[in-house]
Amino acid sequence: MSIALATQFAPYTDDLFKAESKISLLTNTDFDWTGAHAIKVYKVSTVSMNDYSRNVYAPGENEESAASISRYGELYDLDATTEELLLSKDRSFIFNVDKMDTDETVGQVEAASALARQLRNVVIPEIDSYVYGKMVTGAGTKPTAKALTADDIYTDILAGSETLDDAEVPETGRVLVVAPSVYTLLKQAAVFDNTDIGAEMRLKGVVGILDGMAVVRVPSARLPEGFGFMLAHPSATVAPVKLEDYSVHSDTVLSSGDIVTGRVVYDAFVLDNKADAIYYQAVTG
Questions:
Q1: Is residue 135 domain-shared with residue 226, that is, in the same domain?
Q2: Do residue 107 and residue 170 come from a single domain?
Q3: pTM (2 decimals)?
């Protein structure tokens, strides 16, 4: 005798885990693209210092030959060039949620929750990956790729911090981005046991502050291949999201149900004169 066993579906959806975006810690939105597709930013030059001369003319010079010389030194014109920030990413999606699908899945296939899932699992990771890629490409300092080890990782990061110091990057607001594998090396670094952050790491199980920098751990899937770590000040990268248009369209002729659409216009730019505020270390292997 055979028995037909019952199968029950629980009102629960097994969603993927997705990390929150940390891009806002690393970038800024200082410029407003309202009413414009591109923004031009001026870059103005400077001049060198001179020794002030109490005597304008050197012995034997006449006024005509010294026309461009003043007591302050030679007179120069400043250069004023521009860099254009042109938005290039205009992305969209569309999907259908049938009424019967909603009814016959105990409400698990539902437009609003499906839209939230699309943003969490697809849209945000895409934007994150793009911004990290632009920052890596535009980094002002890129030492040769190397193998990172627990013995050297702390010294390697301090070398990056020193580079930012020499570039006169503001000390406050710096962020250290690490891939999970590098985070593991940090936890293994013996020198960390002698620092304040070492105790915090042991208590909280996360990286908090290292050499005055906020430390964030980003999933490898959102980082360029070969990513080791990156030091960045948020003033260096502009990451605008000009348009976020997400809608649920009910009772359209296209579907007996809901049509969900989305459009996002975004980009990321590393400013030419602030590129030195990004230090990127790639890894080999």
A1: yes
A2: yes
A3: 0.81
Q: Do 170 and 188 belong together in one domain?
A: yes
How does pLDDT run across 135-150, given as a tens digit for each residue?
999 999 999 999 999 8
Domain range enclosing 54:
38-86
The residue from 86, 111, 146 where one domain ends is 86
Q: How many domains does the chain have?
A: 2
Any domain includes 243: yes
pLDDT tens figures, 159-186: 999 999 999 999 998 999 999 999 888 8
Rounded to an integer, what distance in angstroms lies between the CA atom of residue 261 and that of residue 181?
A: 37
| pLDDT, greater one: 12 or 172 | 172
Residues 137 and 241 in one domain: yes
Annotate 28-84 with DSSP letters as a single string. B--S--TT-SEEEEEEE---------SSSSPTT--TTTTTTEETTEE--PPPEEEEE
Q: How confident is the model at residue 10, as a pLDDT?
A: 47
Tens digits of residue pLDDT in 181-212: 998 888 887 665 544 555 554 443 345 778 88
Q: Which residue has the higher pLDDT, 3 or 259?
A: 259
C-alpha–C-alpha distance, residues 256 and 234, integer Å: 46
Contacts of 140 (CB under 8 A, 6+ apart): 167, 275, 276, 277, 278, 279
Same domain, 251 and 154: yes
